[in-house]
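Q&A log
Question type: sequence-to-structure
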Amino acid sequence: MPRELWLYSKRVWPVVFIYLLLAAALLYRFQVYPSVVRNTDAFGYVDIGLAIREHGLFSDLRILGTHRTYGYPLIVYLYSLIGGLDPLRIALVAGISQLTSYGIAVLFLASRISTYSRTFAHSIAIGLLLNPIVVALVADVLSESVTLIIVVLALVCLFNSARAQTAFGILLWAIIGAALTNYSVMIRPSNIFVLAAWNGAFLLQLCLSRQGINRGVLLPAYAAGWVVSAAIAWSPQYLYNASLGAFSILPTYPLFDVQIKWGIILLKYVTVVVSDHAEPFNFINPWCVPTVPDVQSGIWYLEHPLRGILTIAGHVFHAFNVEYPFTYVYNTNPFYSLPVSFAMWIVTVIGIFNGLKKNFEFFSRVRSVDSAALGLVVFIDSLVFMVIGLNGFLAVETRFNLIPIAAVSVLAVEFILTFRSQPRALKTLLVGGAIGVALLGSVISEISRSAAVAAKLAAAEYSPLCLTK
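Response status: OK
Response body:
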């Protein structure tokens, strides 16, 4: 595998070179404009990691509070063993570690896919390594970064398991994938979707007819490996929650109810750094009307179905609308806001169109495709749809939509690389449509952003128009 990875990296050396330059620029940016300031999630992860270091590994997990899982703070603790006690140095170690792991994982995946389709392999390398919005999120001290790395590695495991010629090879890669996806739930609770998508894709892949493979042995062996890896990954969080009187592997805080409530009040949430601390920068939901209950907030959607549909559409729009390329904003009115939004809408429209086209072509001939291709498509499709579905009910941040943004980036690049072979009418229609949608999306984005900036400047971050019960 290392030789294959090295050979593929040499074939795409311009992409690797540009990625290294982009990574260096981002590492510098996060040192000059750090994410690890008070009241940010990035600082919270570093703070918990340092607390774990001070009190000992798992000796006092109460430092997690009730709304976090231990997975990413534990990784940050490992970063602190190299970076020391300074949050900025820890952030630098985190950025270097995550960018390196991500780059290797993407090139590993692309090298494996190149045996199936060289064009799509190059699309993966370019789309995932050269989209600055995706790479900036990977470089930050946030759980979404490690989540994307795990998703890429899970795709490698799916492909290698399907291509393995022995039962041992199939099982080995399957258990590695299971261990990664089980641990991903401890990185972010919403990664339960990664876990579900992985198992669905692998089991479907395994159920396809494969000569000489005894599924009657493989399925119980995989189940045993899955249970063991799940027990190892989830036990610390379960024991911690049990000490608080809750017998669960997920945070004891009613995180989902709170997020649904604020998803009704707000369309989008941005964090602005002011001096040495962070403050909320809210995009208020214009379709919100009283009242929004504190618990079982989803009832509001049943009471206001039309407003609910518009609210969900607003969330999805803002999930793909990127006016700020960084999670923590130092300037709410940058000159690049409109160009960034326009460019991302071009990528999104082309990527979504190409994705729908390729899915139609793929599933229309699904009986003739091999198990590796089916596993990859089912995993990514189901994961992207689940993430978009969840984001439809949340006050989204760009980082919540990292996986769909990465997916449309790859698909947009694939369309561009095959542009010459596309029918002329399709090219004209899509390019014109993409520009039109991008212009409209950018205008809506600018109107929404300007309103939020004006409210912020008027010291009216949020006036409780939607009273709670």
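Response note: The CA atoms of residues 198 and 399 lie 21 Å apart.
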